[in-house]
Amino acid sequence: MEKTYQVARENAEYITAMRRDFHMHPEPSKEEFRTCERIVEELRGMGLEPRVVAVTGVVCDIRGDRPGKTIGLRADHDALSVQELNEVPYKSKLDGMMHACGHDGHAASLLGAARVLLACRDQIRGTVRLLFQPGEEIGYGAKAMIKEGCLEGVDATFAIHLASGIPTGQVDVAAGPKSAAASMFGYRLVGGPGHGASPHQGVDAGLCMSACVLNLQSVVSREFDPMEPLVLTVGKLNSGTRWNVIASEATFEGTVRTYNPKTFKKVPEAMDRIVNETAAAYRCQAERLFYEELTVPVVNPEQATARARRTVEKLLGESAVVSRPASAGGEDYSFMMEAVADSILCNMGSGNPDKDSCHPHHSGRFDIDEEALVNSAAMYAQYSIDFLSE
Questions:
Q1: Considering the entire predicted model, what is its pTM?
Q2: What share of the chain is helix, strand, coil (3-state, %, to 5)?
């Protein structure tokens, strides 16, 4: 058994306790003040010198006994505005807010990895930089931390995402695209008020919005290569004030997902054309309220993938290595990968039907098999040691 896994196992109770503490006290993106304070407190208790960046992010270096390169280990720690439906001792104490994506487990695992690395300091040839990142769910944190210099001098980065769709004990380690570029967009349509019984006297912005939502699907089906995955989803629609009044104004918001950066850049122009011309056909005025690129694609390079596979085999055996299809979900760690070429994201299995931890991410029933936390802590530590030993 690798020493990293042995030490992680010895710290299982600590890692689980930290995960439950974070889970009971979820905080929204950019407001993770208590979480940030707890992380700093724990790291200082280990004799380390953390510093706060990007308001609620934390950076902390662990230097080995010998000089060498630097690797950054990233874990996010923001929660979601989701009502928890689980009746567990560590249930969220904040109504309408929960860790429904596993970020509590990411932060706890990285704290566990810090303990493992300190116990294995003689194996560290260089520096391991711990990157506790805020605001992943809104595509804020990675860019903010990069802007404040958290990747200066970093030669490689590594991140883990817990995955309820993968059995505990397996790790998805695959080269190529793993998650999509993601955007957030919004449009406003303006028509004219009128009585529901006399629609000809008004200009129906709600009807126009409905047409825009339908017509936008032609962007996917008719304007881009069908062999290139592309998703355009309108998830929020708002119009009208009363059941018998013509809606004079409407707004709608949505997201675009793709693995192709060139496609990602071209979609907004096509969307604007369709919305503007549809609005004109319905006698409305259209305005794009925003189009924000939240993430770029996560693409795992071959060399880092091969290294990560060897690490998983050391810790959990050859059968633990699996390869799953790419996800259309967005991940802002992609900006760190864009900044540091030798970077990889691995999906750590945390699904266990016996522990009711196979519910989808962002669901009020989401939970993790806490056995996965030991695997994650060991993986963070061992991968960094393996990279620095090359």
A1: 0.90
A2: 40, 30, 30
Residue 52 to residue 104: CA distance in whole angstroms: 18
- Angle at Cα 334 formed by Cα 19 and Cα 341, nearest 5°? 115
Tell me the pLDDT tens digit for each residue of 270-297.
999 999 999 999 999 999 999 998 899 9
d(CA 54, CA 139): 13
Give whole-number Cα distances, 286 to 106, 186, 250, 325, in Å: 42, 11, 10, 38
> What tens digit of pLDDT does each residue of 212-240 get?
999 999 999 999 999 999 999 999 999 99
Asked if 387 and 156 touch (Cβ cutoff 8 Å), the reply is yes
* Other Cβ atoms closer than 10 A to 124: 22
Tokens of 353: 């039907």
HSE-up of residue 75 (Cα within 13 Å, Cβ side): 32
pLDDT for res 28: 98
Tokens 């004799």 locate to: 47
Q: Is the pLDDT reported for residue 118 higher than 90?
A: yes
Number of helices (H), then strands (E), in the chain: 10, 16
Give the model's pLDDT for residue 1. 84
Fill in the amino acid letter for 207.
L
Pick the CATH number of 181-294 from 3.30.70.360, 1.10.3720.10, 1.10.8.590, 2.30.30.40: 3.30.70.360
Query: Please, which pLDDT band fits residue 55 given cuts at 50, 70 and 90?
Result: very high
219 in Cβ contact with 228 (< 8 Å): no
Query: How confident is the model over 241-254, as pLDDT tens digits?
Result: 999 999 999 999 99
Alpha helices in 151-260 (DSSP H): 205-222
How many percent of the chain have pLDDT more than 90? 97
Note the CATH number of domain 3-177+298-389: 3.40.630.10
User: Which is nearest to 186 in space by CA: 272, 295, 291?
Assistant: 291
**Sign of CA pseudo-dihedral 316, 351, 157, 256:** positive
CB 56, CB 107: distance < 8 Å = no
- pLDDT given for residue 124 in this prediction: 97
**Cα-Cα-Cα-Cα dihedral sign, residues 106, 77, 124, 306:** positive
Tokens of 164: 């309820």
Q: Where are the domains of the chain?
A: 3-177+298-389, 181-294
